[in-house]
Description:
Elements: H1 6-15, H2 20-28, H3 32-45, H4 52-64, H5 73-81, H6 88-97, H7 107-114, H8 122-135, H9 137-143, H10 148-156, H11 166-181, H12 228-232, H13 250-260, E1 265-268, H14 278-293, E2 297-302, H15 312-324, E3 332-334, H16 339-351, E4 355-358, H17 362-368, H18 387-398, E5 408-411, E6 426-430, E7 444-446, H19 448-458, E8 463-467, H20 473-483, E9 490-494, E10 497-499, H21 506-514, H22 529-535, H23 539-549, E11 556-558, H24 560-574, E12 577-578, E13 580-581, E14 584-589, E15 596-601, E16 611-616, E17 619-623, E18 643-646, E19 653-660, E20 666-673, E21 688-689, E22 692-693, E23 702-703, E24 706-710, E25 738-741, E26 745-746, H25 749-759, H26 761-768, E27 776-779, E28 783-787, H27 790-793, H28 797-801, H29 809-815, E29 822-827
Parallel strand pairs: 1-2, 2-3, 8-9, 10-11, 12-27, 14-20, 18-21, 24-29
Antiparallel strand pairs: 4-5, 5-6, 6-7, 13-26, 14-17, 15-16, 17-22, 18-19, 19-20, 23-26, 24-25, 27-28, 28-29
The structure holds adenosine-5'-triphosphate (ATP) and magnesium ion.
Adenosine-5'-triphosphate (ATP) binds at residues 269-271, 274, 279-280, 282-283, 466-467, 496-498, 504-506.
Amino acid sequence: MADPNFDSLVSAFKKLGLTDEKAAETAKNNKLSPILYETYRLAEENSVDLNKSFGSLLYNLASTITPEAREYLSFISKEILNGNLTSNDQVSEAIKYCKKGNPQTTYDDFKSHCGVGIVISDAQIVSKVSEFLKANNEKLVSDRYRVLGLFLSKIRQDPELRWAKAETVKATLEAQVLEIIGPKDERDVPVKGKGKGKKAPKPTGQTEAKPAATKPKVPSKYTPASFASMFSEGDISKLHKPGENPQISDKILKEHLDFIKGSVITRFPPEPNGFLHIGHAKAINVNFGYAEYHKGKCNLRYDDTNPETEEVKYLESILETVKWLGFKPDQILYASDYFDKLYELSLHLIEKGLAYVCHCTGEQIHESRGGDSMGPRVACEHRDRSVESSLLEFKKMRDGRYKSGEAILRMKMDLEDGNPQMWDLVAYRIIFASHHRTGNKWCIYPTYDFAHCLCDSIENITHSLCTTEFIQSRKSYYWLCDAVDVYKPVQWEYGRLNVTNTILSKRKLLKLLENNIISSLDDPRLYTLPALRRRGVPAIAINGFVRELGVTTSQTTIEVSRLENHIRDCLNSTAPRLMAILDPIKVKLTNVSKPIELEVPFNPRDVSFGSHKIPFTNTLFIDSSDFRAVDSKDYYRLAPGKTVGLLYAPGPITCTDVVYGEDGKVIELICKLEDGADGLPIPKPKTYIQWVPYSPEHGSPVVLDELRLYNNLFKHSNPYDKSVVPDGYLSDINPESLQVVKSAVIETGIYDLISRFANDQKTKQHFDDKNFEELRFQFLRTGYFAVDKDTLFSSSFVEACKGPQSNSVEKLASTSKNNVLVLNRVVTLKEDPNK
Length: 835
Ligand code: ATP
Ligand code: MG
């Protein structure tokens, strides 16, 4: 066979995957080129499809083969081409083996020496690395990136990992370390003159890196069983047993005991005049939780006694929210169910001489109760009218013969009592409004003071749990039950929950709406429960937050950051990871010709999250914050002439040129992939950054229409405090409470996740209910995100996700152009130290 000429050498070497430049250089190398060409001919003779990995193994063999092994070149090459030797490590062991003699005669020994056929799965690597990091967590947290090299060599010494791919072990270690301690920062700047290995001082205000979680599942403190301590400790653990509360007659007690059969019965009694808020989450946990803890029942009872303020949409939202938080009402009841019964009881009260119709105006009542000067109370002229007269007048009220405000029914209590709740409270007032359940049947409606205790009584509530502003009402509550001779529940009060930097009052929330500060009551900056849900906050995080605070009587205002920590805790163990770029710069790789496919885990620390494929081509995006035109020593990411690692990529990249636009802005970075194919040593990157591939044929990147980043709605932690915000909460709006990013790009893994979610039988229902907020991701280094409901209202997204072909990611990708993809930031990855 004639010696191949220069051109055919170059062409052969290019087929092995070398770049033009590298192929030419190798062809000129008289020592290397004949050996490499021989391996190439072998491949061709055996008609092996040369992909890049064969090429680089053959190149490695040709360039490192020793004189003793030279005679076995074709044997080793064939071992590569038949897939027995798949890593550089194995090739170098094969070369070493030839020192001992002919590998063909002791073939079995050769195979075991080189680890042929031993497959170490990615899952094994992930779990080994994870185990190691768990055992060495303290050292990692204190010494950070300085221990990476040491850790890698120790992990590689694990006999089970002897034949694991070195690149995979290294990439896995790096990814897990990043996950645990975050990217490199000022703590990782080597301390000058202090010798190697000295700790850099920890900057103040930094949050402590979290130790490796032992379990990938939801942390156990968020499981339902975990809230037992909320009821097994403190005053609430000392409440009476069902049936132990005294009644005014044995008959009443007996009927009650017969009804409850020893079980606890509680209720959650919202007024359907607005969305529930974070404070209600406490009330829900207290009421449903107490019943659950005692194996009893809890009713959802709508306190729908004021038709003027109530709306059906709120009724629906309340039930949905209760269910979302994970509670199931034993019965769904309405105060209006009892309007007839309540009317009867009011007649009974009048007949007993304990109620009267009064025609005083609001002002007159105020004056007769002592007025602004809080002077002595005086009875009004109506208080002593006869029972007959009150019965007659009350029926006239019921029959619509009075206008609203002309007459009220008042309870005849005790004006001498020190408790204002005993000063002849109003029992019924006239409201001409249609009721969502009783229509126009009534024009008189019972007040909270009249209805609440009697509804509790009718339902045989054993523990009427409410907030401390009702402490004074306890007396009137008991008074009325006894006055009408019915069962009397026990009222017990706990402190309201408030959080900083927000307002919860329905009236004030409506003001925000009227002033166009928000566009809906589920605006994710609010702390209504529908808003938190829309933002993507997991229900278990809210429950966990509320339960951790416990049930005390003190009214508490809690830092929102405490809720945020619970959200992070939950999402850290449940949200798959994706790479996303908020402000992309294009990167062109000059030495990548063929696209390759990379397998990227959805969570580098937990294989149960699965993985997805992403293309690696000659174009990709990085974030503008990961590049600096002017480099500095303490800067570890990309800059002209500098090398940085790309997570999961086949090698780091070095920036060789920067293309600027006319406005002086960076348009594109020209970089080189450092994969060692040119035979030059691969520079060591100081840190790793995320990236998103550009490959239109793979539908990559996915462009997000909107990424909504939320911050506190108010500038002050207590916007309702006039001494801090004299012009009122409307003047305290944080102009940066909502930032909308329109340029973000993300890897196609989001479609894998959406399609997986849509196809999960368990979540199919969610899709029908448009429960998209359950789709949550961690964007590496950026935060946790959830799909906003706007995605659904403006698109056929759900349709694209459902149906027989729904598992096709391509389908989603192709329909995505017609769909608006909006994501909300649920919470940042770390607490903002400036907050
Ligand atoms: P708001 O005025 O904030 O809307 P509310 O008391 O009028 O509250 P309701 O619908 O009457 O709202 O509340 C239903 C239940 O939830 C009541 O038992 C109430 O005590 C309780 N609740 C309301 N706000 C809070 C809070 N911030 N913390 C704890 N429980 C609360
Ligand atoms: Mg109320």
